[in-house]
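Issue 218. Parser rejects a valid record. Input:
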Amino acid sequence: MYGAFNLQDGHDLASFEVASDRFSEHLVQQGFVHAWQIWFRAFHDGYDARFPEVSVLVEMRFYDLRHRWPAGIISKRRPSR
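Output the parser choked on:
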């Protein structure tokens, strides 16, 4: 899963990374995530000109739970509405 966004005024990347790492480590301990990364974009003319003007990119790599949970659990879940 990828996310692209800007931090709100008053929040810095270092503080966000601490919180994100703690949350991601929790997801690893729960068996959902196996890796994550955070990037901070450096803007300059001509680079990624068509990409939205965001400064933070996050990647979380989730396990395919169909291969980790007992058969049938995923198919029995209904989407929330």
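Fixed in the parser; the record now loads. Residues 13-29 form the longest helix (17 residues).
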